[in-house]
Amino acid sequence: MRSTIFTGVCTALVTPFSDGSVNLCKLSELLELQEEAGLPAVCLCGTTGEAATLSESEWSDVVREGVRRRGAMKLIVGTGSNSTETVVRNCRRAADLGADAVLIVTPYYNKGNRSGLLSHYVAAADASPCPIILYNVPSRTGVDLPVDVICELSRHPNVAGCKEASGNIVKTLRILRGCAPGFAVWSGNDDQIVPMCAAGAQGVISVISNLLPSETKRMTDLCAENRYAEAAIVQQDWIDLIDALFAEVNPIPIKRAMNLLGMGVGTTRLPLGGISDEAERTLRRALQNHDLL
Hints:
46% of the residues lie in helices and 14% in strands. By secondary structure, the protein is an alpha/beta fold.
């Protein structure tokens, strides 16, 4: 049986910028904060990491810094694209640089059909020297990876699991019921950490843990101990901040929150603009409600 890459919280880390360039010194600081919080894994160059706006050399620099500073954490690297050839190349590059696993978002814009999606992921899994994680986020890609496709892919020995961000708990139950033994599912939504874990997920690939790694870890730790009632209280307590962090397109609010707390991660790159006045007010109010600001 395949081993689970991580259980608990994996932070989908932001990519810090300074004067238009990747700030590798700040990235090192962010990685250190995650390690100090005891998180088992971190994900670089994903959606939250603004991978779509990174050049190839920047992407490589970020991954190298992650490898250098990961400590005991597993390093997952986003290698997704709507070109299968590019995904295969990215998977090999990530593994060569030292990644433990790769995260591959469902191909966007092309909107592959069933056979195309299967062939896309099988090509990546066959070529990748390290395990791959499927990433289903239809709100961003326009494609909802079907349950039967996920279940079929789960039988490939190099497909380790799925980051499920459709928001559909029933779909998660069907995935878990139909997939091969040892296939892991992680929540891709911070507002569903506890419900997903209660359904059988292994944890979360999280945005809020950029800001609150220890508190997010507490949620999944309680779930791992079958203390779901207590975990639910933690989830309920932070739901206003989670909502505020997704009041606009991720990672606009999380970067703004981190900057408000003095973490100095810089702005998002275009085409992601600055936070709106209304979202800023909502975010500040949530941070103040928790005595963070």
